Amino acid sequence: MTFLYSLTNLKARIIMAYSLNSNYLWRIEFMNERKLHYLLLVAFSLSNKMIIEQTNREKLMPGQPKILEFLLGHDGCTQKEIAKACILDKSTVTSLITRMLLCGLVRKDSDLPDRRTNCIYLTEEGRNMAERVREICDVVDDTGWRGISKEERDDFCRIFEKIIQNLEEGEEKSYGTKTS
């Protein structure tokens, strides 16, 4: 029992050390690298790190880039819609939107019949920044897809969409409702 605990504890420390302060991905032999959750963790961590490094240079906080990119295609949506699409808590979206309002990246209008609900729109500066975010994400995507054929990409996307569907269905069974 102690041995299992120490392995779990070591794994948590290794992942934490990587995510907090390391430029190198430490792969330990006892961590099965073919496990889905581990592969997802590694892929997300690496791509997110690349995106954050670039968007920090643009003075964006984590979370703001995905909101900007979403608004680029869905200008005028509600904060609730942003939270659902960007997989963020409503309180997190409220905080990020407040900062984005202060920076002049977005504006809020109560366009809907229900004046209690606000629509969020990109400003000109916000639209320019959203385009820059899209360019950054395209470079990260291109890096990830390097050496992978169109057919392999299509297969991967089809399989990955099925994995997402399976996980959403599993979430429904576990919690009784879908969180998204």
UniProtKB/TrEMBL annotation:
SUPFAM superfamilies found in the cross-reference section: Winged helix' DNA-binding domain (SSF46785)
Recorded GO MF terms: DNA binding; DNA-binding transcription factor activity
Domain HTH marR-type: 33-165
Keywords of this entry: DNA-binding, Transcription, Transcription regulation
Pfam family, one: MarR_2
Listed name of the protein: MarR family transcriptional regulator
Organism from which the protein derives: Sellimonas intestinalis
